[in-house]
Amino acid sequence: MPQEWRAPRHVIARPAAYHLHRPPRGHRWVRVNHDAVLVVSATGIIVEIMPGLFR
């Protein structure tokens, strides 16, 4: 995932508010358009996608 999508403005600070599981250490949920995407913070590797969560 490109660095621009991992910027703080895209990070989902309270995943539980959207019924997302707590990210493992070193991971974070980010919002990409209508989707929530779990990525490895350091590399941007995508681990999980919750499509259409933000419709």
Structural category: mainly beta
Strand content: 25-35%
Mean pLDDT: 94
Task: Please count the beta strands (DSSP E, at least 2 residues each).
Answer: 3
Say which CATH homologous superfamily is assigned: inner membrane protein cigr
What order do the SSEs take from the amino end to the carboxyl end, as H and E?
EEE
Overall 3D shape: globular
The number of helices is 0
- Number of self-contained structural domains: 1
The top level CATH class name:
Alpha Beta
Strand order of the largest sheet: 1-2-3
The CATH level-2 architecture is identified as: Roll
Unreliable runs: none
CATH topology-level fold name: Nuclear Transport Factor 2, Chain: A
Largest sheet: 3 strands, antiparallel
Rg of Cα set? 10 Å
N- and C-termini, Cα separation: 21 Å
Percent helix among the residues? under 10%
Keywords: Membrane, Transmembrane, Transmembrane helix
Transmembrane segments: 36-54
InterPro entries: RcnB
In short:
This protein has strands at residues 27-32, 35-40, 46-50. It is an all-beta fold.
Helix and strand topology:
Layout: E1 27-32, E2 35-40, E3 46-50
Antiparallel strand pairs: 1-2, 2-3
What does this 3D model show about the protein?
With about 55 residues, the chain is mostly beta strands. It has one domain (about 5-50): Roll (Nuclear Transport Factor 2, Chain: A). The protein is about 0% helix and about 30% strand. It is built from no helices and three strands. A three-stranded antiparallel beta sheet has the order 1-2-3, with no helix packed on it. It is globular and about 25 Å long. Keywords: Membrane, Transmembrane, Transmembrane helix.
